[in-house]
Structures are given as C-alpha cells and as structure tokens.
Design goal:
This protein has 8 helices and 3 strands; from the N terminus they run H-H-H-H-H-H-E-E-H-H-E. The protein is mainly α and 188 residues long. Among the domains are: 3-51, no CATH class; 89-164, Alpha-Beta Plaits (2-Layer Sandwich). A 3-stranded mixed β-sheet has the order 1-2-3. It is flat, with a radius of gyration of 30 Å. The termini are far apart.
Length: 188
C-alpha cells in the first residue's frame, strides 16, 4: 500500500446481514460481495488522481510535467526508473546539495552505491573535490554523475574522480594451539 492509499480513508469490509441462514438462500451473500467489489473499484478510481502525484507510479506524461516543475531534465538513454527517482527526490537532493554528507545521501538515494568525497587534500588545489568510488559504479553511471555534479555540485569547485577497485577478502579464523619445549645444552 503506497502513501496515498495510507492517507485515504480505509474502505471497511462489510458483510450484508440477512435473517435467512439457510444454505439455499445465498442471494444476499452474493449481492453483498458484488457491492463490496464495486465500491473497491470506485475507491481505486477516486484515488487515481492521488497516485498521479507520485513520480514512481504516475504516467510518463505527468512525470515530465513534474520533472519540469522540479527542474529535472532527462538525459539521453536515461532509464525510466532512474528518471522517476531523480524526480521523486528532487527536493531532498536540492536540500542536501552543498555538503559532503548531503552529496553522499544523494548518491545513496539514486542507487550509485559506495562513494567517498574528499576536499582540501594536501598537495591538491583547494577548490578540487575528489569523488572516490568503485570502478563499476563510475562505468555504469558516467552520465548520471555528470548530471548530478552539474545540478547539485558546488559552484567554483572542480571535481576529480578517484577510482577504487574493490577486491573481496576472505579471512578464515581457526584455532591454533601448540606446545613448546625448551632444551638447554652446554658446550664443553
């Protein structure tokens, strides 16, 4: 159940009362089920406009209007799900833009994965921010990273990528025990 349905009043489940409890007289039961089914459909019809305000569920035409309203432009070959996420989180991303922790939250919301940002590093000009991320994340999200930096990056700053190649490490723990003896010997 999405958040719009949670805000809407819950449609109760009603059973039609009848005084004839015999197995032959089931018409009121079928009538009650039919009415419940109709009102459930009417409930979904009435909630349709609310579902159109959610970028993850609305039609693509409404999504483009929401994107225009939020200042988001779809880049070439952008997957629809990623575009929907960018539109959905546009306000939160704009609020988080400008600091390191906020930039990490932006990357996390859009599914880029692990990322570290370093600024004012020794031996690097003061206006350079180093974005450290995995090689696969950089390769799969090159255009997205450029759009995010252009849209949410700090002005008068330059960005550099530092690629990390993660390697899995397996460490096994085992019990190690032994006995030691010391023998003394004299020469002579």
């Amino acid at each position: 159940m999405d958040k719009h349905q949670q805000q809407a009043p819950e449609l109760p489940e009603h059973k039609a009362p009848w005084w004839m409890d015999g197995r032959e007289q089931q018409e009121p039961h079928f009538l009650g089920n039919g009415l419940n089914t109709f009102w459930r459909k009417a409930w979904h019809w009435l909630l349709f406009p609310l579902r159109q305000l959610d970028p993850l569920e609305c039609s693509e035409n409404i999504l483009n209007v929401l994107a225009w309203d939020r200042g988001i432009q779809r880049f070439s070959n952008e997957p629809l799900l990623l575009y929907r996420k960018r539109v959905k989180f546009a306000f939160a991303n704009a609020r988080d833009a400008g600091d390191i922790a906020g930039f990490k939250r932006i990357f996390e919301r859009l599914g880029i994965g692990w990322v570290e940002l370093h600024e004012r590093q020794p031996g690097v000009p003061w206006d350079v921010i180093i974005i450290e991320l995995a090689d696969l994340a950089l390769a799969q999200n090159q255009q997205l990273l450029q759009v995010l930096i252009q849209h949410y990056g700090r002005t008068c700053r330059r960005y550099r990528y530092k690629v990390v190649y993660p390697q899995p490490l397996r460490l096994h723990a085992a019990r190690f025990s032994g006995s030691y003896q010391v023998f003394g010997a004299k020469l002579g």
